[in-house]
């Protein structure tokens, strides 16, 4: 790590007699040593029963990355950087600081006894793509759900204008009509893997139509917008504000029941009064003239003919296929009409035009149903991120401590780079030759993750969204069969929990059923309230049960000594599961076990990983 920007660690409050099990990697230690000086003495400030300090050039993130319960002995001021992780009770995190001195290993070694921990093993190889230093990573922004408001373009205003030429002092009306607003389209495309770009934008507006101009020139159409989302996105409408739609409804009702519309009360016959939201008048007009003016009946409210292509409200779309052409979400509104539209035998020079219609606003929740083709499930520090690096060009963060990965990393494994024969020739569901598949490396699961421990339920949700699961098991970290059982226990407990919640949710919705029209009340969305806090949670997306998904085991770190026996036991267990001698680790009846197998690999040396793409492709067809 270059030390130009300095190393950041967290200063810890001092207490006596506690153990510091030290920076685990030699690389990290040397990073700390090379870090620029500061005023702190580590002996006074490092305490706790176990702490791993890792230096990083990254500045503290703007938002907390950890939730309190994910750290044993929760840390109060919640500003943990990605670079620091504590895995045992500590006094508190005080503030950010720079380290002055190197942290000598000897001084920090244990004095009080703790539960025995795995001894630090220095890395064998030089830093490389598969054995990177902890600061060699790229954080891929990721979001799998977001709330988005789209607004179709408003129409441009009509124009009040008159012909003026030599010898024609008072020419006829020649104001052009306003242009219609831009449309909002949506398209699910291959290659997108995350909704983070949309999550950041929150509001997407199509362009407004331009106003009409003199000499009968119509306004230009507003610019359309296209929202591209990953394949497997669910779009659910939360609220809708459609002023023109409401007007059309009111107009039809008034026609049917013979009621007068707003603005027509005071006048007799067919003429209406001035409505500032509907009419535009000649700019040179004085107020008294305006008062004397009579306005014709407003033209009936209308929508663009494209509105017929909009999906029915409330919108619920399951975009699970690549779309060749975009789909219309909200059509732009119509522009206002120019003053020639109001010429009558009595009124040759009307001084009014109509304003363009306001655009429709729709608030939607977008959620990724499918995260990736392959999901890597494993205990913390098992080697998932290293495996992802070995399979793809991902630069997921790798570090020899738990919870290095805090958010899913989605990498793409290229099967065909168009430079020769594809690595694996398989056709996807759409009949096209597959060129790649995606792999999601999710944060590690720990015991009781289903009770929201560790990084909790959010990440089990990601596990649920992969088509095939790979259980990554560290052969050097104790009994591999037990580890596999523990992972399956968490996953299946989560499945049970989800089933219960789904039932409760269905019951609740059946009791408090609201017709869709009441959901789409147009008055709710005039301003943008904090939708995330106001909306009721939407129902879960039904997906295949986790235990019914195809899965296999990746036994990693097979390069380390004394791992053969562990692998042999695991292989035997897998054989037993396949033949039915042992129950499926999830203990579920309809669990998938037809072709379960284990693959021994060394991700750090990229050995054995080449069989995984073929295996995944086979399982994706199941
Ligand atoms: N010897 C050896 N070490 C490995 C192998 N794979 C990963 N490691 C090391 O194991 C440590 C943890 O690897 P990560 O890839 O960060 O593990 P992870 O499962 O992503 O960890 P979390 O993100 O914290 O859940 C790193 O120090 C890696 O260098 C391997 O095949 N052989
Ligand atoms: Mg990781």
UniProtKB/TrEMBL annotation:
Residues 108-135 are annotated as: Disordered. Residues 372-621 form the OBG-type G domain. Transmembrane segments: none annotated. Residues 140-371 form the Obg domain. It comes from the Eukaryota. The keyword GTP-binding applies. Residues 118-127 have a biased composition (Low complexity). Keywords: GTP-binding, Nucleotide-binding. GO terms for biological process: ribosome biogenesis. InterPro entries: G_OBG, GTP-bd, GTP1_OBG_dom, GTP1_OBG_dom_sf, OBG_GTPase, P-loop_NTPase. GO terms for cellular component: mitochondrion. One of its GO terms (molecular function) is GTPase activity. It holds the Pfam family GTP1_OBG. PANTHER family: DEVELOPMENTALLY REGULATED GTP-BINDING PROTEIN-RELATED, MITOCHONDRIAL RIBOSOME-ASSOCIATED GTPASE 2. This is GTP-binding protein Obg/CgtA. It comes from Lentithecium fluviatile CBS 122367.
């Amino acid at each position: 790590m270059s030390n130009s920007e300095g190393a950041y660690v967290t200063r810890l409050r001092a207490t006596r007699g506690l153990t510091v099990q030290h920076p685990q990697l030699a690389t990290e230690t040397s990073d700390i040593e090379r870090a620029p000086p500061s005023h702190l003495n580590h002996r006074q400030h490092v305490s706790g029963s176990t702490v791993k300090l890792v230096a990083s050039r990254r500045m503290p993130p703007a938002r907390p990355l950890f939730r309190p319960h994910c750290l044993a002995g929760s840390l109060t001021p919640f500003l943990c950087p990605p670079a620091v992780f504590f895995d045992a009770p500590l006094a508190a995190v005080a503030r950010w600081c720079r380290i002055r001195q190197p942290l000598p290993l000897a001084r920090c070694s244990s004095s009080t006894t703790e539960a025995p921990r795995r001894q630090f093993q220095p890395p064998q190889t030089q830093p490389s793509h598969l054995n990177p230093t902890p600061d060699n990573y790229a954080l891929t922004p990721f979001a799998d759900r977001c709330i988005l408001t789209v607004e179709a373009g408003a129409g441009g205003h009509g124009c009040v204008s008159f012909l003026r030429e030599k010898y024609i002092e008072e020419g006829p009306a020649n104001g052009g009509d306003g242009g219609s607003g831009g449309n909002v389209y949506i398209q699910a495309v291959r290659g997108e893997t995350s909704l983070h770009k949309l999550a950041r934008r929150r509001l997407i507006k199509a362009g407004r139509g331009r106003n009409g101009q003199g000499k009968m020139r119509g306004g230009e159409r507003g610019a359309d917008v296209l929202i591209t989302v990953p394949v497997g996105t669910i779009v659910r409408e939360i609220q809708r504000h459609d002023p023109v739609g409401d007007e059309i409804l009111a107009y039809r009702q008034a026609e049917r029941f013979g009621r007068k519309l707003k603005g027509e009360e005071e006048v007799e016959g067919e003429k209406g009064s001035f409505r500032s939201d509907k009419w535009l008048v000649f700019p040179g007009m004085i107020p008294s003239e305006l008062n004397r003016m009579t306005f014709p009946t407003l033209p009936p409210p209308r929508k663009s003919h494209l509105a017929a292509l909009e999906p029915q409200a409330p919108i619920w779309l399951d975009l699970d296929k690549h779309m060749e052409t975009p789909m219309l979400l909200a059509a732009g509104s119509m522009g206002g009409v120019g003053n020639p539209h109001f010429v009558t035998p009595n009124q040759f020079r009307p001084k009014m035009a109509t304003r363009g219609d306001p655009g429709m606003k729709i608030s939607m929740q977008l959620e990724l149903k499918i995260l990736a083709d392959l999901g890597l499930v494993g205990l913390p520090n098992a080697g998932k991120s290293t495996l992802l690096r070995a399979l793809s060009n991902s630069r997921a963060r790798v570090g020899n401590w738990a919870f290095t990965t805090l958010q899913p990393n989605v990498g793409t494994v290229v099967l065909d780079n168009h430079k020769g024969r594809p690595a694996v020739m398989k056709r996807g569901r759409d009949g096209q030759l597959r060129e790649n598949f995606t792999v999601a490396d999710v944060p590690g699961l720990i015991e009781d993750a289903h009770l929201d421990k560790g990084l909790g339920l959010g990440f089990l949700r990601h596990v649920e969204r992969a088509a095939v699961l790979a259980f990554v098991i560290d052969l050097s970290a104790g009994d591999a069969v037990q580890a596999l059982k523990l992972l399956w226990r968490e996953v299946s407990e989560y499945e049970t929990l989800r089933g219960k919640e789904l039932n409760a949710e269905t019951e609740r919705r059946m009791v408090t059923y609201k017709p869709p029209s009441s959901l789409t009340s147009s008055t709710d969305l005039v301003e943008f309230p904090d939708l995330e806090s106001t909306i009721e949670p939407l129902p879960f997306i039904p997906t295949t049960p986790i235990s019914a998904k195809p899965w296999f085991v990746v036994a990693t770190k097979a390069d380390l000594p004394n791992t053969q026996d562990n692998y042999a036991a695991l292989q035997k267990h897998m054989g037993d599961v396949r033949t039915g001698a042992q129950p499926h680790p999830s203990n579920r009846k309809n669990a998938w076990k037809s072709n379960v197998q284990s693959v021994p690999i060394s991700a750090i040396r990229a050995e054995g990983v080449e069989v995984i793409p073929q295996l995944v492709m086979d399982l994706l067809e199941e």
